[in-house]
Amino acid sequence: AQSVAQPEDQVNVAEGNPLTVKCTYSVSGNPYLFWYVQYPNRGLQFLLKYITGDNLVKGSYGFEAEFNKSQTSFHLKKPSALVSDSALYFCAVRPSPSGSARQLTFGSGTQLTVLP
Amino acid sequence: KAGVTQTPRYLIKTRGQQVTLSCSPISGHRSVSWYQQTPGQGLQFLFEYFSETQRNKGNFPGRFSGRQFSNSRSEMNVSTLELGDSALYLCASSTPGLATTGELFFGEGSRLTVL
Question: Which member of A34, A41, A101 has the closest CB to residue B100?
Answer without folding.
Answer: A101
